[in-house]
Amino acid sequence: MTITLWPVxxxxxxxxxxxxxxxxxxxxxxxxxxxHEWATAGVRVTRRSGKRLGGQMTIFSSLNVEAARLARRxxxxxxxxxxxxxxxxxxxxxxxxxxxxxxxMPAHDAESVVAGTLPDNAPTALxxxxxxxxxRTEELRARESALATLVxxxxxxxxxxHEGYVLLVLVSGPTxxxxxxxxxxxxxxxxxxxxxxxxxxxxxxxxxxxxxxxxDINNLQAHDTFSPFGRRxxxxxxxxxxxxxxxxxxxxxxxxxxxxxxxx
Amino acid sequence: MTEPEWHIRSGQPADRSLLSTFACAxxxxxxxxxVEQFIRTQLTDWTFDPHATSGDPRLLVxxxxxxxxxxGVAAHERVVIExxxxxxxxxxxxxxxxxxxxxxxxxxTGERASDVLMSAVMTDVSARVPPRDARVFAVIHQDNxxxxxxxxxxxLVEEMTRPHPDYRRLVxxxxxxxxxxxx
Lengths: 264, 183
What we know:
The complex is a heterodimer. By secondary structure, chain A is α+β, with helices and mostly antiparallel strands. Chain A is built from nine helices and eleven strands. The longest helix of chain A is centred in the middle third of the chain and has 18 residues, at 124-141. Chain B contains six helices and eight strands; from the N terminus they run βαααβββαβαβββα.
């Protein structure tokens, strides 16, 4: 089992990582992050409601949270690199599929997905794409050694739920007690659910502790993501020896069936 | 000579807004939605990516003259396809899409909208400087029968291995060197 954080977030989480304690609705911090390219613009989801538009939301790769945190701590060059990695992820096929799926969902369900909860009737493909995003996020995180020590994260499965707390059994074995209200806020207050605690140090004696939804990326369905578009997937241009034989020789002239002029 | 009922031009960065509403997909069909989403959200960036200029990416937009309606969008670029032992210059047809309202339609002079767009692509590929290799390939979803037929009409009649079980990869034909030498 490999438990990691939910890979999609809303703008609130990004702002919160940059300016803990400030109201997330304030424009200034996010504008600063964008100005310095420490955050992406996110991916706009325009929900469809029949033939009408059903409102918009913007979703972000969770790497933006890490970039914002790095920026807060003054590690600005790494913040920029992590934000670029977030941009890479957000322009990839997984985010494109997620964007399409969210566009077709009712507003409440779409917001729940971003917050870390899949609707009961969610298609397998939705779970798969979130897991694939989580896996890709981990790959990109692994490129930056600074992220390994940026925050302390413990993650595990909820084993017991009590009136005031939940008992989290960590992947490494020990258990931790988490206030129940925090687990509720993370949408993870039932036995069996996956929860993470992120401790973000503010100074020598204080830290922000967040309870966040987590996901197991090891039990991926056999869902092979492929997009024929863009320049990312090497399979598009990789050929075999049999293809090679097919391509040898003199190409036939191209066919044009309708005379067409192309203006500049 | 009468003017055709269509006109086609190279895409510009300012076409981003135009492309953002292009509709070519049945919302129930995932692979069609993928095409539409790519055109709406990524194609402008794909075309004008400053890191991709070596591939000479080209965007073409096709309009019906009478209404100025955007009926087709196409894009292509130069690529190198390679095996462990060989490399071939080629042109990849990135996307060829006809607006939903125009799918299956002909102009009053008889030309299919799809033939006009595909002929424009082939004309554009032929006209590139420096010249493109005449090997042209496309990656097409196996259920996209219209695009498969269109590509075959334009000489993409050979089939390479599939890059993914759901996608076919068609390429223009090549004459063997011996046959080419005798003609």
